Batch of 2 targets.
Target 1
Amino acid sequence: MTTAADTAADESIHVTVLELRWEAAGVVSVRLGPEDGALPGWEPGAHVDVVLPNRIVRQYSLVESAPDLRWYRVAVQLDPESRGGSEYIHRFLRPGQQVRVRGPRNHFPMPKHGPLVLVGGGIGITPLLAMLRSAQAHSRPWSLHYGGRSRGTMAFLPELEPYRDRVRLWPSDETGLPPLDEIVSSAGHDSTILACGPGAMLDAVGAAVARSGIPEERLQVERFKARPRPPTVDAPVLVRAARSEREVLVDENTSLLDGLLRAGVRVSSSCRNGVCGTCEVAVLAGVPDHRDDVLTQAQQAAGASMLVCVSRAVGGEVTLDV
Ligand code: FES
């Protein structure tokens, strides 16, 4: 029998909403499980696509799962600018309803060794909670700095209570913003800093790391929203789809992803915004013009892969393994 766990990452699994639980003001967690069988295994930092009944697809980091993978838990913050994802979940999604999940995928993996310095802001706590539980279970050194507007808006505080000696809370109405320079410079030389939260916080962590002289590769960040980018004037790109044996001329107003899909070349996608990593494809020839928020600077410089929903090609030509 095929179980949910046998499903490929870009196939969707039907799951039922088992529970909705308020975690903080504006944050609800959702427990999702298949009718029978187990869900695919996952590692801390992974996210799933949730396909809602209104057909909107959103990505949510996995907070936890049942030991036998009979359910996943994700957490959703109500976005005042919601375009139908978080608003739908908060207002309309209820236990017993069916949704679909795809994945999990992980573009924010925990390093295998060494101490962890976790820096979270707001709903960015979700992947970090899974990481600290894993680190704790494996007796790895870790610490967490967790900021939010106020304690009432900060999810999962009861879950963090047992780790009081390793967790520093920064509710800004009480403490002000976390002292990022101090936090970064006190990280041990073998530590990895993993940060997840609002874009402004992640930019500030990146700037603190740059000022500290700590090598950039010791910082890993996950963004939920794409960084604002200056407007660009794009040129057409000739994409050679090697496996499909197709050449596709993508005009300047069309993403490489849409150009390939319209030409019948199969490419997985989800956010279409350069933040989820689903559309990453291998580059066989050519130089990508990277515009995503997933690949590290080192990965972008290597040019071995690109995210075709947002990135284009230097020189107007690229050959992809699709
Ligand atoms: S579809 Fe999400 S990064 Fe391209």
Target 2
Amino acid sequence: MPAKYFICSDGRSILIKDCLTSCQMKQRCMFLPTLRAVAKSLDRGLSEPTVTELIAGTREIYLKKTVDYAVNPQDVLYALHGSALHTINENHTEGNMLTEIRLKDDITSGKFDLYGEILDQDTGVLGDIKVTSSYKIMKALGKYKVNVPTSEVYKTGLKKGEPKYKKEWRDDGVKGIIDWAIQLNYYRILLEQQGLAVNKIVIQAMCRDNSLRIANERGIDQAIYLISVNRISNRWIIRYMQHKATALQQALHSGNMPSICTAKERWHNRKCLDYCQVSEHCSYGKKLKNNAIKLLKVVS
Ligand code: SF4
Ligand code: SF4
């Protein structure tokens, strides 16, 4: 079930369909066509869970499919950035390439962005377009900073005589792209099931904050990065997705709330606190938020 309500800037909720008919405030919080596009991006009209849904925590998907939840249109605009970029690419796919086709198997379905001769002479490149933060790109590239000694020493102060260090970037860290890798490897499997060979998987990640100082501090100074994704064994991927699909089906069938999302799925609580659209319906998310509010009161 997609989101049913919008949250207005004054905190009140409104049925999305009522908001699109008439705003309950003096003035709309954004242009009507933008709101319509946001509403459309929230409802893809798919009842069966998709690859991207199954990658999320089972409790989160279960709640999204069973409760009427509310979203602030300001918080979900990021989905429009992605679709806008997809549309731009989709209109320029003349030649030896396929785009935006939903493929399905017994477990789930997935829509790849681009496939074909999109990068070099290789006709078997699976490409995925992401619009994301400099933080996520820094993690995906495996970038990290190290202290490198300089030839200088401190001449005064508490550290007098100690060597001075400077920070330098390294690009050989662990690539934090497991979710993207699972998603794209599943698309690869779906393409291969159609007899289409996938020789390379590449993400084109566009940084949405690349002109800001924070991006620079994270070592991100380009608007677009190409990130290669390794093959993961079909056996592992299929078992993982089958497990997630079965857990969801069983929960939906029995009506029993699944266990809380794993630490990885809930981004070590960051998602529960700030990004999960159904946290108001999850006991764990509510508890975390209440604790955070209590802590803020103590501090202030
Ligand atoms: S346009 Fe914005 S402020 Fe107006 S009803 Fe819709 S969500 Fe609320
Ligand atoms: S609040 Fe956290 S644990 Fe609950 S559904 Fe959302 S991500 Fe999962």
